[in-house]
């Protein structure tokens, strides 16, 4: 089946998903404090569905850490401005520019668009769809909306999802799409994407 769209996952596919968890210098408890908030308050799920903001983290983190609210806010934004891009996904993203429609479908908050801009990703893809916008974490739903918004039919059979989570791959295939499980060092993309540029 030909491919007319490549749908890229974001975290641990295009960039290192640990970007927000990178601790500030001299504050080793940062990661644990973030995880506590995500688990105890259900913050992560609300954030992904567009019901929360990164700003809500500032005071709770300052209460748990030896940091002022201003220091917390500055560090949160700094981590989002400096994501580590991953290969080989970025190589393929660039090679396929102007060859096939490319979108990012990501389980992320509204703030994600700032991250994409900081990484230069917004200029490399045709559309970005977040779970916060649709209040859904399903890559099937996010991709169908991407196709519709770009004037394509919602049939997933000609879309290739590149994602690092096996559950997303399985769901996408169950709904008729093509999908490949991505790891940072995989070469599984090559046989699927090479025909698009030859």
Number of helices: 10
Strand line-up of the largest beta sheet: 3-2-1-4-5
Number of domains: 2
What's the β-strand tally? 5
Radius of gyration: 18 Å
How confident is the prediction overall: mean pLDDT? Answer: 87
Q: Which word captures the global form?
A: elongated
Give a written overview of the molecule.
The longest helix has 13 residues, at 69-81. This protein has ten helices and five strands. It is 40% helix and 12% strand. The protein has helices spanning 30-40, 43-48, 58-64, 69-81, 89-95, 112-118, 131-134, 139-149, 166-174, 189-193; strands spanning 5-8, 101-106, 127-130, 159-163, 178-181. A five-stranded parallel beta sheet has the order 3-2-1-4-5. α3 (58-64) crosses α4. With 198 residues, the chain is an alpha/beta fold. The chain folds into two domains: 5-16 and 83-197, HAD superfamily/HAD-like (Rossmann fold); 18-81, no CATH class.
Main attributes?
198 residues, alpha/beta, Rossmann fold, 2 domains, 10 helices
List the helices and strands and how they pair.
Blueprint: E1 5-8, H1 30-40, H2 43-48, H3 58-64, H4 69-81, H5 89-95, E2 101-106, H6 112-118, E3 127-130, H7 131-134, H8 139-149, E4 159-163, H9 166-174, E5 178-181, H10 189-193
Parallel strand pairs: 1-2, 1-4, 2-3, 4-5
